[in-house]
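Schema walkthrough. Field components (list of strings):
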Amino acid sequence: MAHIKKATSLGDWFEQRLAVKKVWNVLAGEYWIPKNISFLWAMGVILLTLFILLLVSGLMLMCYYKPDALLAFDSVNKTIMQEVEYGWLWRNIHAVAASVTFLIIYIHTLTGIYYRSYKNGREMIWLSGILLMVLYSAEAFSGYMLPWGQMSYWAAQVITQLFGGIPFIGDAVVEWIRGDYAVSDPTLTRFFMLHVCLLPLLIIVAIVLHFYTLRVPHVNNLTGEEIDFDLEGEKYLQGDTKGSKVIPFWPGFLAKDFYYVAIFMVFFFYLVGFNYNFAMDPINFDPANSLKTPAHIYPEWYFLWEYEILRGFFFDVGPLKAADIGLIGFAFSLVSLAFIPWLDRNNVVAPAHESKGFFIWFWVLVVNMILLSIFGKLPVDGTVLGISNTYIGFVLTMIYMLEILVVLPAVTIAERKRR
Amino acid sequence: MKELKTLLIVIFFTLFLYWGIEPFAHSKLNPPVEPANYDFAAEDIALAKTNLEKANANLEKAKKVGLDDMVKNAQNEVEIAKTSLDRYSSFWSDINAIDLKAGDATNGELAFQASCMGCHSLKAGGYEPLVSEAEGSEMYGVNPPDLSSAGKIYDDKFLAALIKNPVMALKVDHKFDFEYAGEAIHPMTPFYGAGTKDDLNAEIADIVAYLKAVAPKEELSTKAVFMDACSRCHDVKYDEVYVGGNREKLNEYMGMTPPDLSMYIRSRSNEYLHNFINDTQKMLVGTSMPRVGLTKEAEDKVIAYMESVGDSKKDEREKISIYVMIYFVILAVFAGLWKRKIWSKLH
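Field assembly_structure (string):
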C-alpha cells in the first residue's frame, strides 16, 4: 500500500489516493495527437457531443414517455410536444441528434477509409468503430418505434419479419422478438427496454473500447506518416512545441475541437428549429394503425442504402428465393465495412489521392452508397431516366458487392506489386 | 485553404444526398398536382381533363402490354373519365348561368323557409334546430349543418352549386347517384323550387343572397371556422373537440371513422391540406369526404387552426432556436480565439 502523508492541498489529497496526475497525463495531458490533421479529425468529438445530447435529451423524454401501445403516441405528440415546458425542444434535439449522428458516423468512417487509417495496428480501432455503428443502428431502429406512429409500426413489422428468412427457426424467432404474432404492445415495451437500457449500456462500453483502442496505435494524420509518438512527445515536453510533430489531447487537440463543435452546433440548432422533417418523417405523425398500410414504407435515411441492397435482388437463383438473397445481401452490407482492413491487400497507410486506383475505388464507393440511399427511398415500380428502379437498384447493389469484395483486393494487390 | 476544399467536398456530397432523399424522392413519392384553385368550376373541369389525359395514357400503356383484361379496364376508365368531364362541364355551365348578383335576400328568406329549414337551422336568422344533434345524425348520417355562417365561409358560386345539385358540388358522385334515381341517394336533395318565383335559378340566387345577408359581419376566429366546416365529422382530441351526435351512424355513413385531425398539420403538409380541402378527389381518389367549398380565406383559417393545435410551439421553437444559434456563434468566436492562443505556441 502507498505511504500516505499529510496532504499539502486538496489536489495533493486526491493525488495521493487516486494518482490524478498520472491518469490525467495518460488520458489527456500527454496523450499525443499528430499536429498534421484537418477538421475531419474532429468528428469523434462531435460524435461524443451528440451522444451526450442524446443521453441527456433521452433522459428528459423518458420522464414523460409511456411505453404502452395505447398511450405512446399521445405521450409523445401531446404531452411532450405540447404540454411539457420545452418538451418539444428535447424531442427535436433527440430526433435530430439521432439522425445527424449517422451523418457524422458516415463522414467519420469514410475519412478512415480515405486515409486508410485501418491498417498496421489500427485494426482494433476500426473494428470497435464498426461495432459502434451496428449498435447505433439497433439503437436508432428501436428508438424509431417508440412514438408508435404509422412508420414506427410498419417499419417494425417489415424489419422484424426479416428474421423469418432464417432457415428452420425463422418463424419462431420472429415471434420471439415480437413477443406476439404481430407487432403489438409487448413488442413496443421490449424495444423500449432495448432502447433505454441494454443498447445504451453496450454503446457506452463500445465507446470506451473505441477510445482505448486508440491509445496504443494513436490517431493517423493527413499524410499517413508513421510518427514515433514517444520521441515527439518527449520533444514537446522539453519545450520544443513548435518543432514537435505532436500536440497533447489537452489543450492542443480539444482547443481545435471545441471551435469545430461550436460551429457545428449552429448548424445543429438550425435543424432543430427549422428543418427537422428529415429526422421525423411526416407519416409517423399518424398514429399506428395495424389495418392500414402506408402507401410507401421506407426506413430513416441512414438505413436506405442497406434497405436498397435488401430489395435489390428481384429474382430467384436456384433454390434461393429473391427475398433470401436480399436478406443475405442486407446482412452482409451491415457488417461489410468491418472486413476492409483485410480486403485491402496492401500495407500502405496513405491518403487515397496518393494512389490512383484506390482513389477511384473510394469515390465510386461514396457515389454508389449515395445512389443506393436515393433509390432506397424511391418506389420500386417507378422509373428514373426511363429505366426501371428495380434494375437500377440491382445494378447499384452489384456494384457495392463488387467494390467491397473484388475491386478493393484487386486494386490494392496491383498497387502492392507496382512498388 | 486545403481544409476549405475538404469542407466543400463534404458539404457537396451531403447536399447531394439530402437532395436525393428529400426533395427528389418526395417528388416521386407524391407526384406534384396543380395548385389549389378556388374557382371551383375551373378546378373541377381542369381535374376532369387531367384525369382523362391520365386514363388515355394508361390505355396506351395497356395496349402496349396487350393483355385483354388490362385494355378493357383501361377503356372503362377512359369512359368514366369522359363521362365525368362531360358531367362537370355541363353542371358548371348550368351554375354559371345563375345571376348571383340579382339575388334578393328578402325573398331568399321565404325560399329558405319553404325549402331548407326542414333540415337546416339558421340561428343567426332566428331559426332554431328542429331536432337534436343526435337525432339529426341518426336520420341523415351527418347532422345537417346550421347555416348561420355559411354565407361567409363558403364560396357563393359553390353554395349555388350545392343547392342545385349537392352530389356534384360536393364531388361525391362516385358514392351517390347523381341523378337522384338509384338507391344511393344523398341525404340533401337537389333544389326543386320553393314556389316563390317561377325561375329556379333566381330562387337559388335569392337563397345565397339571404345566407350572405345573415352571415356574421365580423371576422370569425380560426377555431370558429373549423368548428363550422369540419367538426361535424372530425375530432381534434388534442383540443378537446369531439363530434357530436351518433358516432356509429356517422361512421356507417362515411364508410370509416373520419380521422382525428390533431396532428394532421404534421402528418400532411400545409400544401397537401390546402390541395385536399380545395378538391378532395384530386388528392385522394374515391374518398367519401366531400369537397366542402370553403373560400380561400376560410380554408386558411381552418389550416391555421390545425397548426395552432398540432404545432402549438412553433413560435417558441423558432425564437428559441435563433437564440441558441446566436449563442453558439458567439461561443464559436471565443473558442476560435482560444484555439488561436493555444496554437500560437504550437505552430
